[in-house]
Amino acid sequence: xxxxxxxxxxxxxxxxxxxxxxxxxxxxxxxxxxxxxxxxxxxxxxxxxxxxxxxxxxxxxxxxxxxxxxxxxxxxxxxxxxxxxxxxxxxxxxxxxxxxxxxxxxxxxxxxxxxxxxxxxxxxxxxx
Length: 128
Fold this sequence. Notes:
Number of helices: 0
Oligomer: single chain
Largest sheet: 7 strands, mixed
Structural class: mainly beta
Order of helices and strands: EEEEEEEEEEE
Shape: globular
Strand order of the largest sheet: 1-3-4-5-10-11-2
Strand content: 25-35%
Radius of gyration: 13 Å
Distance between the termini: 26 Å
C-alpha cells in the first residue's frame, strides 16, 4: 500500500521537529503497519521532503526507513512507486531503503536515522 502525501499536503504537516527529531505513533499512518508501505511528505521543520517506508516486520532500527526524497542525480523529488522509489525527472529507481537500482543517479538516496519500538517511530534530522 502506498499513501501519497507530499510536502504541504495531508497529515505529515501536522508532525513537527522537536529536539532534532520527529516522533509519531505508527497507528497514525496505517500504511506503515504493512511491509512495503510508504508515507511521503515533509514534517514542519524537517530539512528535506521525506519518504518513510516500512522495510521489515517487527521493530528496531531496520524495520522503518527514513529517506531523503531528493534525488542524488539533479535534485528532483523522488516519489513512491510500486515496490520502489522513482525519480520522475530522469528515471532513476531506488529500492524502498533508498538503495540505488538504476541510473542516471549513480548513488542511493540519503537516509536519516530512524527507530521503531513496535508502536512509536522516531526519525532524527541527522543523516544515518
